[in-house]
Amino acid sequence: MSALDQIVEPGAGALLTVPAGGRLRIVDLHGNQAVDTLFYDAHDIDNRYSAFDTIRAQQAVYLTTGSRLMSTRGDELGIISDDTCGRHDTVGGACSQESNVIRYGGHTRHQHACRQTFLTLGAHAGIGQRQLTHNVNFFMNVPVTPSGELKFDDGLSAPGRYVEVTASRDLLVLISNCPQINNPCNGWNPTPVQLLGWW
Amino acid sequence: MKHDIPGDAAWSVPVRAGRAITLTALAENANASMLIIGSDRLDRLNIPDTLKSQMTARIHAGLVLMSDRGLALATVTASTLDWHDCLTGSIPSPLLLLELAKHGLSEADLHGSINFFTKVGIDADARLAFVPGHATVGASVTLRAEQDLLVFISTAPHVLATTPAGGVGVQIGAAEAGGPAGLRPEALRALELVR
Ligand SMILES: [Zn+2]
């Protein structure tokens, strides 16, 4: 019996509390769907996920089973305990209306974007612009190369693949199911995902 | 204005729009971790947006450093090195947190930083390895401020380095006009919004 079973449509999101030891599973129902996710210590949101501390701690860029999700204070917030996709990104950040304009031009200014969802849902937990940091993009494929290039590529995910995070402490998890339609991160067609939780 | 920051120190300095800040490695093992905050003291350097807009995983000359709100903060106008790390962050030292506090800022304002003079190499599987001796004495990088900036610099050694910290020279003066060539259209759009 799961404590959480929720469908999140593209362009929507979720703000969850996951207790220490709880397992949160995100299921890519239709494949190639980026799920932008932020983690905070539920009792002190200044102790929050840090993408680049996480990368340095594992000395590897991509996230998968065993990756420890580190905080700005060097605490382990959670650990990826299961992963049937195999590779997740934490370098590419979230889409925003502002970065859409930079990347794709002024006609995208008013398209919905992950930052809009983060700010909308985060407000319920005191998470505003200052508290938004560089996120995890579950199921997203952002290859980096030995010559120092980076690109957004077709996803490696497929329908039904999932990733699971086990909380190392009580966590706030802020999720945006990405509505981006200007690059291949969602296979050019954003689709729903399922959140499952056990605690 | 010239100032040499010793190793294991932190400093914050305003750099007005149109000025240039040049960092120079004073020792082989120098590392200058930089946070940049825009003129409103809220809009910060956004490493992911900077990288994905310009299809790079490293900082080098010919890039525009972009903010959370898609504005140009600074242009990397010159660099003797083609690789400055921006994927491995830095642990904020107590001295860096004090510099933030002087401006009414705190750990909530920490964001991805650039580790100037440091290279953490990437292999074919995207595993990382610190590259010792990447910067030599005299290596330098110049940023032109595209809006009024507040720049935070920590000279603590990179976390993956095994040698003690080196010092970093800072010089701030009038930026040269023009350049650099070859900016991508994304970079030009970020610049257009602050001009
Ligand atoms: Zn998005």
From TrEMBL, chain A:
It holds the Pfam family DUF1989. InterPro entries: DUF1989, UAAP2. It comes from the Bacteria. Residues 7-172 form the DUF1989 domain. NCBIfam families: urea_degr_1. This is DUF1989 domain-containing protein.
From TrEMBL, chain B:
It comes from Kribbella albertanoniae. Residues 4-89, 96-150 form the DUF1989 domain. This is DUF1989 domain-containing protein. Pfam families: DUF1989.
